[in-house]
Design brief:
Elements lengths: L1 E3 L3 E4 L5 E4 L6 E10 L2 E11 L3 E2 L6 E9 L3 E6 L4 E6 L5 E5 L3 E6 L4 E9 L3 E9 L2 E5 L5 E8 L3 E7 L2 E7 L4 E4 L3 E7 L1 E9 L4
Antiparallel strand pairs: 1-2, 2-18, 3-4, 4-5, 5-12, 6-11, 7-10, 7-12, 8-9, 8-11, 13-20, 14-19, 15-18, 15-20, 16-17, 16-19
Length: about 200
């Protein structure tokens, strides 16, 4: 991991933890995870899907899936109340669904890669935004913030500004920048996914 003062740290893909899928049909590159009493509070991961099939059951977790590469994927979901679908046709298309819903993936034309953000329902929430340069966004962290990061889906250039500190970063494709302080981020080149994960508050 490469650290730059207290503002941010860059995690290259080579540092991601390889984890087998629950259904045994592939593997995930785990970028970040937090657990409480052996339960996953949140997890951010990257995976390749080489063939269609049923997703693993992650009951109790809300899932956000982002298409990173490939020609698209169609998701069909079913629970006791309804059936619904997501058609991820473009790079950085986003789908939101319950991890406990029965989900089946159909690939449009060959293998894809995706980013998967899972958070514990009722306890943790996530905000996931596809970002294309040029673009700016603010990082606002407080005591409820668990994770703030930017996943680079191409070679990217970021400008990070916090008070009197300003730092430019070149981020390789498929690396993740962890953002540690309140700051303004300008994406000067490339595209990626901005992720904020927070503890839910009551009232």
């Amino acid at each position: 991991m490469s650290n730059h003062s207290n503002l941010f740290s860059v995690v290259p893909q080579s540092d991601y933890l390889r984890m087998p899928w629950k259904n045994g049909l592939g593997e995930t590159l785990e970028i970040a995870v937090s657990r409480e009493n052996d339960e996953v509070l949140y997890r951010v991961s990257q995976a390749a899907v080489v063939e269609g099939g049923a997703f693993s059951d992650f009951s109790g977790l809300h899932r956000t899936l982002v298409l990173l590469k490939g020609n698209g994927m169609f998701l069909s979901h079913k629970n006791a109340q309804k059936e619904y679908q997501h058609n991820l046709e473009q790079v950085l298309s986003v789908a939101h669904f319950a991890g406990g819903d029965s989900t089946y993936a159909t690939l449009s034309n060959g293998a894809i890669e995706d980013l998967n953000i899972m958070v514990r329902e009722g306890k943790v929430s996530s905000e996931v935004e596809a970002v294309f340069s040029p673009a700016s966004f603010d990082v606002s962290r407080d005591s409820h913030t668990l994770f703030t990061g930017f996943y680079a889906n191409s070679d990217c250039e970021l400008l990070v500004q916090s008070q009197a500190i300003q730092q430019s970063i070149a981020i390789p494709n498929q690396a993740t920048v962890l953002l540690h302080l309140n700051s303004q981020i300008t994406l000067q080149k490339g595209c990626g996914v901005f992720i904020v994960i927070t503890v839910k508050t009551i009232g």
